[in-house]
């Protein structure tokens, strides 16, 4: 119940009291003080007895007063109690529940902003079975995220305390999907200061904002308008290639999946060639290798040697790609 209905309930209660005092004064001819006392002991059910003997009409009026008073009083108390629960008590309970859920999360992703872009990001991350925590300054959007089964933190993501509430110390990455360029830059800067090693993807709206986001610490910047225009152009010029890329990148696709895996220094594959690693037996194709110095090897040859710290980009059906990940982690 909002403060408006609570206020209305209290006004109704005052109205019942006023009518009760006036009714006893007019019907029974009592003084204003005796009438007020009679209303008080009637509505509070103290039961001291009648101030003066009541006439039949006075008894009927008293019964109506009891019914009206109990109804309005119950409504007002229910509203006040609900207001307390939704207020400080409710916030404390939600914060405690959020902390308990956060403890059970594996390294998770943080999505700042739960608008159209933020919801799409969350949908894709959940399709990859990745835990997600949402930060949203708008209370209604935060409640929508919670209704969708997400852990949501309400607040300004440029605030270090809010980022800590979202578990940035244990996060795997953060997507800044807010529409305001200034807010996106501030959030990126705050996240980078707290986690120098964190992957940060920031939404931008033009090249100038992209440069500022990079300076603030963004690992990658994405302009939805540029990306959308690029994809539409590919759909016109290379429709089949574009469809293939869509299938590969769509996390919920059941036929094709693309993923990346970091090769640890102690992985047995280090020092072997792609042919010796027998990735084809896993049903996957290594389409690119990113070296530690940033060099990208697209369509690497079979004799390419795997090095510690390499990032292997693998393509295949989702089950095969998943098995490869389990093999590399094992």
Keywords:
14% strand, 330 residues, Rossmann fold, 12 helices, 3 domains, alpha/beta, Helix Hairpins, Alpha-Beta Plaits, six-stranded parallel β-sheet
Architecture of the largest domain, according to CATH?
3-Layer(aba) Sandwich
Give the class-level CATH name of the largest domain. Answer: Alpha Beta
Q: What share of the residues does DSSP label as strand, in percent?
A: 5-15%
From the N-terminal CA to the C-terminal CA, the straight-line distance is: 53 Å
What global shape is seen? elongated
Instruction: Supply the helix-strand structural class.
Output: alpha/beta
CATH homologous superfamily label of the largest domain: NAD(P)-binding Rossmann-like Domain
Series of H and E elements: HHHEHEHEHEHEHEHHEHEEEH
- Helical fraction equals 40-55%
Domain unit count: 3
Question: What is the CATH topology of the largest domain?
Answer: Rossmann fold
On the 0 to 100 scale, the average pLDDT is: 85
Radius of gyration computed on alpha carbons: 32 Å
Unreliably modeled segments? none
Strand order of the largest sheet: 3-2-1-4-5-6
How would you describe the overall organization of this protein?
With 330 residues, this protein is of the alpha/beta class. The chain folds into three domains: 3-100, Helix Hairpins, CATH 1.10.287; 106-222, Rossmann fold; 255-329, Alpha-Beta Plaits (2-Layer Sandwich), CATH 3.30.70. It has twelve helices and ten strands. Helix 7 (181-194) links the parallel strand 4 (173-176) and strand 5 (199-203). Helix 1 runs antiparallel to helix 3 (56-103) and helix 7 (181-194) runs parallel beside helix 8. The two termini are 53 Å apart.
């Amino acid at each position: 119940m909002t403060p408006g209905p609570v206020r209305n309930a209290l006004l109704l209660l005052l109205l019942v009291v006023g009518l009760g005092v006036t009714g006893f004064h007019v019907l029974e001819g009592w003084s204003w003080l005796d009438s007020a006392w009679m209303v008080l002991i009637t509505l509070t059910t103290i039961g001291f007895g009648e101030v003066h003997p009541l006439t039949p009409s006075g008894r009927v009026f008293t019964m109506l007063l009891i019914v009206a008073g109990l109804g309005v009083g119950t409504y007002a108390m229910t509203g006040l109690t609900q207001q307390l629960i939704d207020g400080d008590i409710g916030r404390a309970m939600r914060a405690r529940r959020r902390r308990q859920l956060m403890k059970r999360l594996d390294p998770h992703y943080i999505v700042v902003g739960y608008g159209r872009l933020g919801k799409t990001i969350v949908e894709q991350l959940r399709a990859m079975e990745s835990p997600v925590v949402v930060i949203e300054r708008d209370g209604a959007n935060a409640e929508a995220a919670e209704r969708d089964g997400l852990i949501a933190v309400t607040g300004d993501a440029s605030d270090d305390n809010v980022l800590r509430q979202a578990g940035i110390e244990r996060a795997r990455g953060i997507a800044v999907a807010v529409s305001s360029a200034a807010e996106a830059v501030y959030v990126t800067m705050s996240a980078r200061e707290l986690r120098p090693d964190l992957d940060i993807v920031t939404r931008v709206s033009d090249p100038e904002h992209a440069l500022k986001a990079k300076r603030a610490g963004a690992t990658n910047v994405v302009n939805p308008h540029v990306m959308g225009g690029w994809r539409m152009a590919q759909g016109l010029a290379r429709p089949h290639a574009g469809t293939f890329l869509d299938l590969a990148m769509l996390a919920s696709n059941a036929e094709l999946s693309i993923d990346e895996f970091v090769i640890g220094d102690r992985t047995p594959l280090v020092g072997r060639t792609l042919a010796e690693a027998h990735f084809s037996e896993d049903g996957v194709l290594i389409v690119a290798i990113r070296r530690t110095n940033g060099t990208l090897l697209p369509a690497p040859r079979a004799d390419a040697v795997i090095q510690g710290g390499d990032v292997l980009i693998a393509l295949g059906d989702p089950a095969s790609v998943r098995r490869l990940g389990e093999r590399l982690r094992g």
